[in-house]
Amino acid sequence: MNTLIKKHLFILLIASYLPIACFSQAAPADDENIASLITFGKNAETSWGDNDHVQIFFFLIPEKFKKPVYIRVFDPEASGDDDELNGVFDTETTFSVYGGKKCWSEEAAQSSNPTSGNYKSGNLKATKTFGNTSKYDKTWYTFGPFNPTEGEYVQKFGGNVLKVIAEGISGDDGNKYKFYLSTSPTDNVPIEGANAFAYDYCFRMWDDPKQVSHIYPYVDDKTISVKISNFDWDDDGFIRIVSVARKGQMEAVSGQDNWVTTEFKIIQEEKNTSLDIQMIKRKNAPVKNNNVVINVRNQYGELLPFYTIPIGGVPKYKYSIGVKQKTE
Ligand SMILES: [Ca+2]
Ligand SMILES: [Ca+2]
Ligand SMILES: [Ca+2]
To answer: From the CA of 219, how far away is ligand 2's center (Å)?
Structure first.
């Protein structure tokens, strides 16, 4: 093998090990394999799969990153064949970016059902309402630039947090969209060490039954039990939990327009790791256009954050921990 070929092979080998996904601030992110986020207009029945018509997302920018950032929204309108039509498209969705003190730390901002309380806490930095137009259909709208210090500094996260609220202010259609935290106003350019998280996730499942979607709640060291809730799952297959100690614990699943909750104890080895909530569609007659809400609470009733890039990586079941747990 000549030296040039060897060099190329070496570069290819190194490139294949680079943690590309770890630098991606798409929400939903690659590891989640979720088709899109969705928020319905406020007049939609909850049976469409959105219980509150509001979605709150937080973007964490590491302290050391000082350059301007942009929050980009893909397909911000409810219009066109990629959104969920109910009669005629008459839905308006407002996306608003908040920073400053309390944008994250206000209790209501971390609520699973932000229909009351001051969930619009902090300083409003930018806002835009999107109606039935095709201007941004299947393309990106960019908010910003924002200086990272315009966010709320949170010591335990080691960075600044910006909040985005998507709210279906009128109409009854489903607006599908995605987010990206970028260093560029015209392109999706990730920030090393940045992340995105939410406490309650309303999203669209894939129609393809071969696709498995994931959510990764982070279990901190004070968590001794969790309650995992799902809404409007439409009996579409099963939901199971994988962790360093669990190979596949089955969860109770919801049907149409109802919540179902499963509670289980957290063992020592699961603390300071992420859980992998796997959503597996049924193979026969998989549900189409299935919109679902998921949240996870600890023993105090506090919601655990879902990070789009799981903290500590995607958890892998470790046989030694699982075996030890069974014999206890
Ligand atoms: Ca409509
Ligand atoms: Ca849309
Ligand atoms: Ca549903």
So the answer is: 32
The 10s digit of each residue's pLDDT in 15-27 is 444 444 456 689 9
Distance 73 CA to ligand 2 centre (A): 9
State the ligand closest to the CA atom of 291.
Answer: 3
- Please tell me the distance between residue 228's alpha carbon and the centre of ligand 3 in angstroms: 17
> Does one domain contain both 244 and 189?
no
Distance in angstroms (rounded) separating the CA atoms of residues 218 and 208: 28
Mean pLDDT by 10 residues, the chain (328 residues): 51 42 78 96 97 97 97 97 96 98 96 88 98 95 98 96 98 98 96 95 97 97 97 96 95 97 96 97 95 97 95 90 64
Listed residues: CB within 5 A of ion ligand 3: 49, 232, 234, 290-291
Q: Do 183 and 300 have their domain in common?
A: no
Rounded distance from Cα 236 to ligand 1 centre (Å): 25
